[in-house]
Amino acid sequence: MTLRPAVKLRPARLALALLLGAATALAQAPLEPKVFQLANGMTFLLFDQPEAVTLHAGWAVALGSGDDPPGLSGMAHLVEHMMFKGTATLAAGELDRLYARAGGGTPNAFTTADTTVYLASLPAEKLELWFWLESDRLLRPAFPGLAEEIGVIRQEQAQILGNPTAALDEALDAAFFPGLPYRRSRFGAPGELEAVREEDLARFVAEGYAPERLTAVLVGPVEEARVLSLAERYFGRLPRRPPAAPGREPSGAVLDEGSGSAPATDSRAAGPRAERRLVLPASGPPRWVARWPTVPSGHPDEAALDLVVTLLNGRSGRLQPALVAAGLAARASADLQSLRRGGWLAIRVEARPGVEAGRLEAAVAEVLARLASEEVPESELARARSTSAADALRRLANPAFLTGRLLHAAATRTSDGDWRRPLEQPERVLAVTAQDLKRVVSTLLRRERQLVVEVGLPAATGGGSP
Length: 466
Description:
Elements: E1 2-4, H1 13-20, H2 23-28, E2 34-37, E3 43-48, E4 54-61, H3 75-82, H4 94-101, E5 108-111, E6 116-123, H5 127-139, H6 146-161, H7 164-176, H8 198-208, E7 214-220, H9 224-234, E8 276-280, E9 287-293, H10 302-312, H11 319-324, E10 329-339, E11 342-351, H12 357-373, H13 378-396, H14 399-412, H15 420-430, H16 434-444, E12 451-455
Helix pairs in contact: 5-9, 10-13, 10-16, 12-16, 13-15, 14-15
């Protein structure tokens, strides 16, 4: 076992709290975890909250739907489901029953493009129960009822993709990532998920769920010596294996993952290399969406892009007067996604009836042109910094959110110490300058790099799109 000292973040906590008006949130957020690693390579992060009575715990693997084997898309998400079906020791459903009998909540999990995360909460005195149950899932997985669970996933897929927004996002991914595994649905292509056999699941877990790829987070009244002992006793049983990632695309199809020793340019981000347009059949309200390739997770420009989203969103954001108040849209928003192999920023507009795509695009282009050519006034920038950083601090003060956020960050694995990113996000945002904003908008959010999708919008009757 390798024991590392508590991480010391930049020493500005009190000043930061006063600046943000979020002293309470900052005081509650445990920003100095204890970190240790077992001999087999599994990493643990401990956030001691002595006054808490509930333990929030989880573990994550650096493996997601972007790592599905060729021809077996949907595998990572299927494994997440099957990890609740029992083990060689526990019958199907016994995991949930044991957690409930101990006074805990129903365990949960989620799969992203880069990670799979397993979460639980239970009374702090039941700490050893968590270690036993979760390590048993990894040591002795069993996969009964495979065909039945594939049917459950197909039902989940139909329900989720019945939402027009979710269906549009899946179509966007397929078009936006033509050379990357992110283009595939996490639910699996028709016929591919149905072709998965038990031996495929066993191989995927044995190769991909190696302890070198696992991180655990515990938030609550965690006594370090006891956690060390239990970690060695239970998770220490996992054999160290080469950290092979099943299903990786050929190296030529994967983004250069050198994530961030220099500021962002437009040369390495995943996504369209030239402007592209899609027109989709009407489904739900008329919509116009643009997505631009940005930077991988952990890149230094993530904070500036996060602040761009803050400046665009909300009642005081720049999209509101340009689109909603101008009568062109019912709503408009921006969002940001950073992934291991790349990322994107999107602007989404729900159009008013009869408004053409060209008018929406011109309004968005004008907003971005101003951000690219003019420095944001200091008062507006300070407000956006404070809003973004305070929101991050408040989320970190929630132990359940803290657990899940750190697990996802740790398992994204673009560089060592990825789990620190959520903890450092408030200070990174506060350090963003007006020049940083101009640079990322002018280099990354250019028209020639955008993918535009139009859904149910009327055909142009005049000059068309700008």
